[in-house]
Write a structure and sequence with these properties.
36% of the residues lie in helices and 26% in strands. With 482 residues, the chain is of the alpha+beta class. The strands form 7 sheets. A 7-stranded mixed beta sheet has the order 3-9-10-16-13-12-11, with helices on both faces. The chain has a 5-stranded mixed beta sheet with strand order 20-19-21-22-23, sandwiched between helices. Strands 5-4-6 form a 3-stranded antiparallel beta sheet. Bound molecules: adenosine-5'-triphosphate.
Length: 482
Amino acid sequence: MAKPKPSFMDTIVSLCKRRGFVFPASEIYGGIGNTYDYGPLGVELLRRVKDAWWSRTVTARTDVVGLDSAIIQNPQTWITSGHVGGFSDPLIDNKTSKQRYRADHLIEGKIAKYEKKGRSEQAAALQEKLNAALGDNEAMGALIAEAGIKCPISGTDDWTEVRQFNLMFKTYIGALQSEDNIAYLRPETAQGIFLNFKNVLESSRQKPPFGIAQIGKSFRNEITPGNFVFRTREFEQAEMEFFVPPAEEQQWYDYWRKARFDWYTELGIREEKLRMREHEASELAHYSTATADIEYEYPFGWGELEGIACRTDFDLKRHSEASGTDLVFFDPQTKEHYTPYVIEPAGGINRMALTFLIDAYEEEELEKDTRVVLRFHPEIAPITCAVFPLVKKDGMPEKAREIEALLGKARMSTFYDEKAAIGRRYRRQDEIGTPFCVTVDGDTLSDDVVTVRHRDSMQQEKVKVSELLTYLIESMSGWSRQ
Ligand code: ATP
């Protein structure tokens, strides 16, 4: 019997393990469900994604500054922000299988099934009911029954009631494990930004409209993590709070939605795989006047990649009231005191990295065979340039090493390989998305000319070593997805 073809996600997971992007965490102890470690290529990929975000959001702008706040803050932070009371998901248990699910995810799964079968009217009707049931456990439970949703493991509809489950990880500060010493691992980086609003305002000479950006780890005790690194309990976020005069809220909301969407397409994500989904009024958090998700069409369906939210003056006002520190802005020109409104683009670095990987993956049919190629934007590719001696003799390895050092000095990430036939070496680089391979041959030693092979077109060009760096930089900046 023929082996079943692995699913696309299985292919991605196995490529990640084999080539050193992502490993299951604690693997030698049998793993720890849905937790992952990033290997040599994975860590480079994450760095590229973070750099691409930081360089455009902070470095290239004069109106955004950075911050790196602590993961464990004064626990009052999370009481004030509403996370202690309200950062919870509706969960439901199946009594037969003892499996626990997010109630809203079960309903979303049913909607996706309807969509897949082309039953768009039923999908829309159920979506509407889900929106109306959000935040109401009884209504959510009733909807699960009404939609006839069964447990994917046991196949029964033997459900418990829907209950709220707080997603924050708790810990204790110091030696005593008492209620007085409880602290929380941050579930988002945003609150650290609000706590530092005054510090940044006073030290950075910024004034609204301006932003404070942060990249860092967040922790959520997700009930149903899954889909590889799409949803994990520990992940990195890239968030920016952009503080604006209240009257400019709409203008900046429009601006950041477009800027964030364009960031993905400029870095090579196919536009037809992305969509902007505006939240319905019933889906909005109570303090939000508008929210949109940038969604990507994953192999498991459309999913949120990033959210852009209008958070009004909610957070600053709440922290002002609870702390007694006035978090307002005084405009010396108009002599006006006001609490700025906030536009927040919030994305997950790991989810972005997964999206770049999935979107880049192609199995290209060639004349004689198929090649696996990751068509990463050169800025996102973990290795920018591989360097090969054509053969392992006659001074070629030494020359190749010299070229590798030259590129490394210019902070280009390189990989040296002298094993196997040149064609195989190209393919190994295609599979990890390296946009350029440079080969040193016998003539290079006398004419100082190397061959540059391009990943996407597989075309080869002769380039002088003295012009190589400029050539690669120009090729990178002129890149577009084929
Ligand atoms: P969801 O509805 O999927 O749980 P969310 O709306 O709660 O997500 P936000 O709080 O808006 O997510 O977080 C901003 C971004 O952080 C998300 O768009 C996503 O990219 C990322 N993110 C959130 N939760 C996780 C997670 N558990 N694992 C990986 N990334 C996450």
